[in-house]
Design brief:
The protein has three helices and twelve strands. It is an alpha+beta fold. The chain has a single domain, classed as tt1808, chain A (Alpha-Beta Complex), CATH 3.90.1570. Strand 6 and strand 7 form a beta hairpin. The radius of gyration is 15 Å and the shape is globular.
Length: 158
């Protein structure tokens, strides 16, 4: 899926291009893992990749993976797969937006280094909890059935 899509930041339209290849393989693997972990879960809902999520009036983003609360539809966890051609957008701009929104969880998946940065919301903004790499297991205590080995997430797909 290498299609253009739009994000709107404080009323300003920003045209983005979905990366192909490895980016999409990682996105698919994440969605598969989350869908499996959410089987029977009535508290959270997984959105389709790059679904439109409103953070505030005039600000709409499209995370690679979005998990919302079932009761309110409020974004609870966003996963951004860092683009090698435009990494500043994900690692700085969108991270600042998520911080302003008081997002409870943010994962930054970085195929450049094959690691995942996990941030938790705090009274002082997003706080880095851990950088996962190699054989470490990605987990989320609020989704106890979610287990994904980092090396498998970045493994080439056949």
């Amino acid at each position: 899926m290498s299609l253009d899509y739009e994000e709107i930041i404080e009323g300003v339209s920003v045209l983005r291009r979905a990366s192909a290849g490895r980016h999409e393989d990682i996105c698919a693997a994440l969605h598969t893992a989350f869908a499996s972990a959410l089987t029977g879960n009535v508290v959270a809902r997984l959105l389709e990749p790059r679904s439109i999520v409103q953070l505030s009036p005039g600000t709409f983003v499209r995370p690679d993976l979005a998990l919302v609360t079932a009761a309110t539809g409020k974004l609870w966890l966003a996963v951004e797969i860092v683009s090698s051609t435009d990494h500043r957008w994900d690692t700085v701009t969108k991270k600042e937006l998520y911080e302003q929104y008081a997002l409870p969880r943010l994962w930054m998946v970085d195929p450049r280094y094959d690691n995942v940065e996990v941030y938790h919301g705090s009274p002082h903004g997003l706080a880095l909890q851990h950088i996962y790499a190699g054989r470490e297991m990605l987990t989320e205590k609020l989704l106890p059935t979610l287990e994904l080995r980092v090396a498998e997430l970045f493994a080439p797909r056949v």
